[in-house]
Amino acid sequence: MEVFEARRNDVLVFSLKGRLDVTSSPTVRNYLQERIDQGERWFAVDAAGLSYISNSGLGLLLQIAKQLEKRSGRIVLCALQEPVKRVLRIAGFMSLFSTFSSREEAIQDCRRN
Amino acid sequence: MNVVVANDISEVDRLHHIISQFCREQGLSSEIDGDLCLALEEILVNVIRYGHPEGGKHEIHISLCLEPDGVIATVEDDGVPFNPLEAPEPDLDSPIETRQIGGLGIHLVRNVTDGLEYRRNEGRNRLVIRKQLPRSE
Questions:
Q1: What is the ipTM metric for this complex?
Q2: Using the beta-carbon criterion (under 8 Å), do A83 and B37 form an inter-chain contact?
């Protein structure tokens, strides 16, 4: 799993490439946690390169979303591939996260509550 | 195909590779591959995390078999009794602040597969997972 990071004003955009499973999720969680600890509050996850997500990856997204919400921040998702979208749907996550087809839309919407 | 994995989380990567290789060899789609990886990851993680509270090294036996109408995956372990058919349904409706983290593993397994059979026999859990193939495969 690879994480690429970019900044657009206050929004941090994380592009995930690979599989978010039980072995890779802790590394990604630590990475995002570090940014929260540094005071970042607006996250957009570009999932174009994410081919797989399991319960561990879902747990990581929810954990980050809870922390950002407490800090009046937000995490949004974009470019979800169908297999990943399906797992999010089964898990009841589509009502928890705003999802967008493009990265631009996600960045634009991230700071709008 | 039969494989023995240790009760160690790092084994999940190896299992994923084996499943993908099995699917390639059998000409199965990436959707079937993904669903088998997800179901077996969740079951394996449960066994590794909760199956052996006393610790120690244990073997988990996994088999994959292609039948005319689908794939049969079997997981056998010597851990504490755990019947996934009895796992409670998770909360899927609460907002972020009250939504529970985790607890979705068995729910995912149920929803990406087409049948589960559990048996406890001579101190071993045996779970049979059935994944049907679309008619075209």
A1: 0.95
A2: no
